[in-house]
Specification:
Layout (H helix, E strand, L loop, with lengths): L1 H16 L8 E6 L17 H14 L6 E4 L3 H14 L3 E3 L5 H11 L4 E6 L4 H7 L15 E8 L2 E9 L28
Parallel strand pairs: 1-4, 2-3, 2-4
Antiparallel strand pairs: 1-5, 5-6
Length: 194
């Protein structure tokens, strides 16, 4: 957590030192937290217990990052991931259609040119938004990955600076993947034993 805090502090310092550009100060992008069932893709699929904990961790991680606008897709899981931070900052979670990245980025540039923005999206929408923001490498977010936190710092006509940070851990503890919850008193077995 200290490394992430230091990385965010350095990134925000660099942002302050950069000359003002005609784009956002910074854009954070994060995938929604763990959902109740991995195979569930419906718009109303809620967060799991692990996902709710990760949403609180996201709020703790970004509460001092200067975020002024929060966007999420229509999916309950993205809105619930953004909710703890929105409550802490007194902001409303605004809905955007992430399936169309060009209008998303145009909206950021026209309506949020002076803002620090958080976008909570999906493993298949965030890479397209990153590309539309000018980040050329194709990012892949695996289905079991929930720790990615991207920080995009626009640089005018140049490609943006992008940091791929991690917050929390990928413990594989998504409620949907766990056959039986671990016993709080269970001890790990010696190597080689079931």
């Amino acid at each position: 957590m200290r490394t992430l805090t230091r990385s965010l502090a350095l990134a925000l310092l660099a942002l302050w030192l950069l000359p003002s550009a005609a784009a956002q100060q910074a854009i954070f992008l994060v995938r929604h937290a763990e959902k109740i069932a991995e195979e569930m893709q419906a718009i109303d699929t809620p967060l799991s217990k692990a996902g709710k904990a990760r949403a609180r961790l996201l709020a703790d991680t970004l509460k001092d990052a200067g975020i002024t606008v929060i966007y999420a897709s229509r999916a309950v899981r993205t809105q619930d991931t953004a909710a703890p931070l929105a409550r802490a900052l007194g902001l409303e979670v605004k809905i955007i259609d992430q399936d169309r990245p060009r209008p998303v980025v145009e909206r950021l540039r026209t309506r949020n040119s002076k803002d620090v923005v958080l976008i909570v999206g999906h493993s298949d929408t965030l890479p397209d938004i990153l590309n539309e923001l000018g980040y050329a490498p194709r990012v892949k977010i695996r289905p079991e990955e929930y720790t990615n936190l991207f920080l995009v710092i626009p640089r005018g006509d140049k490609p943006p600076s992008v940091l791929r940070l991690r917050f929390g851990e990928n413990l594989g503890d998504n409620d949907a993947r766990r056959k039986t919850p671990p016993s709080p008193r269970s001890k790990p077995s010696p190597a080689g034993q079931p």
